[in-house]
Write a structure and sequence with these properties.
35% helix, Transcription Regulator spoIIAA, globular, 437 residues, alpha/beta
Length: 437
């Protein structure tokens, strides 16, 4: 038995949905009367894990060992909970191997307070069920949030890309209810949010009674006090004409779209089970740009997928050249246990993957720098989100999701008119438009 914890810390890894989930778990603990603390000082430490990258499981065990070692030096033995996708994938093995107190999957974390209580009483505390009844109705109301807040509207994936564990760790595609989402969005605005990013593994697969994500966005557009709407991550096959048209007619919907393609070769896309082709992806982008010419495009890329040849990789580079991404994420392929790609033959050598990743990232960085340079001289609204390192410096986001730093006496959460004055590879320098005038 362990004493019931009085303080907690949540440490999240991975995607934006994990950030959202981590925030909600923190709110659950606070609602139980626990006080937030640093991970090295808390009675309860929740490791909210991600299973996407290679060796994710081993990194969790390493974190647990480091946490225990540091606590032992202070004469402490904190309660440790492992949550998220590694918890879902590993289950009881984490309890057996690492002797942690609580293991809870991403669809069951609303049960965390009860699991902590069971662990404190000496009982086994493991919950990796994926109930049809979604967890969101069991979570406490939002109280205080940053100017830019996340809101999960959809979870899970039915696409079964051959490299991906999400269908196994997050389950099938499930959409939250319309009224539940709208109510939470209003609560976020009441708690201080000026911008809301709608989250989902395939967020544009959201639907309810014939309504799609574009209908939901149109409803959120009516919320007084909400200035900006974004959404991520989308799948090309779920990019409906209604959603495309929304980018042209809903002013609050920001001109930014993250639309992963993963590769430029049709042969590799087929092996990945991506269900779109190079040509269909490029034609989709043409339709999107037709309604919103200034849209900033972002994507995901995997290099070194099993069987990828130099010719296949050249097609990825040529697709990058054709699109001109404003931002992008790129990774070396890493086999995930239980996925079809992990057992495919013709795995690509590590040094070949390293070389291809460097070349791809050079092209992506080139295009991101060019996009930023092309926005110099524009005047736009910047949502101020945090303080910078310099006196009087504030940092916020442009409509195109660029990080913008400027000197201002405005407040965090303000939307200010800014002239973009200087471009860097990863950020923009701006000046207040009225000050510049």
């Amino acid at each position: 038995m362990k004493p019931a914890p009085k303080t907690y810390a949540v440490k999240s890894f991975g995607c934006q949905m994990n950030v959202y989930d981590g925030d909600r778990m923190a709110e659950l603990m606070a609602a139980q009367g626990l006080t937030q603390a640093e991970p090295g000082e808390a009675d309860l430490v929740v490791l909210n894990t991600c299973h996407i990258r290679e060796k994710a499981t081993e990194k969790v065990y390493s974190d647990i060992g480091r946490l225990r070692k540091d606590a032992a030096k202070q004469g402490r033995a904190p309660m440790i909970a492992v949550a998220g996708c590694v918890a879902q994938a590993e289950g009881a093995e984490i309890v057996r191997r690492a002797k942690v107190d609580v293991v809870v999957g991403p669809q069951a974390y609303h049960n965390l307070p009860q699991l902590v209580a069971r662990a404190a009483s000496g009982e086994a505390a493991l919950d990796t069920d994926m109930p049809i009844d979604m967890k969101f109705g069991h979570l406490p109301a939002r109280r205080r949030v940053p100017p830019s807040a996340f809101l999960t509207v959809q979870e899970g994936c039915d696409k079964f890309c051959t490299y991906c564990v999400v269908p196994y760790t997050r389950g099938a595609e499930v959409s939250r209810g319309w009224s539940q989402i709208v109510d939470e969005a209003k609560a976020l605005v009441d708690a201080g949010a000026r911008e809301i990013t709608l989250l989902g593994q395939n967020v544009n697969a959201w639907e309810e009674s014939g309504k799609g994500l574009h209908d939901l966005i149109a409803e959120l557009d009516k919320i007084e006090g909400l200035a900006r709407i974004r959404y991520t991550t989308s799948h090309p096959n779920d990019m409906t004409q209604g959603l495309i048209d929304a980018h042209g007619r809903i002013e609050k919907l920001m001109p930014f779209l993250h639309l992963p393609v993963q590769a430029g070769s049709d042969r590799i896309l087929k092996a990945m089970n991506r269900s779109h082709s190079r040509d269909s992806y490029l034609r989709l982008l043409e339709r999107i740009r037709a309604v919103r010419p200034d849209i900033a495009l972002s994507g995901d890329f995997i290099v070194g997928f099993p069987g990828e040849t130099e010719a296949d990789f050249a097609e990825t580079l040529s697709l990058v050249d054709a699109v001109g991404y404003a931002q992008a994420y790129s990774f070396k392929y890493s086999p995930r246990p239980g996925t079809p790609a992990a057992t495919m033959g013709d795995q690509v050598a590590e040094d070949v993957m390293d070389d291809r990743l460097q070349r791809l990232q050079a092209a992506l960085n080139r295009d991101q720098t060019a996009f930023n340079a092309a926005t110099v001289g524009r005047t736009c609204q910047v949502l101020l989100e945090r303080k910078g390192k310099l006196p009087g410096q504030l940092i916020g986001k442009s409509p195109w999701l660029q990080s913008v730093h400027l000197i201002s006496d405005a407040a965090i959460g303000d939307l200010v008119e800014v002239k973009l004055a200087e471009a860097g590879a990863n950020s923009m320098a701006g000046v207040l438009a009225q000050a510049e005038a």
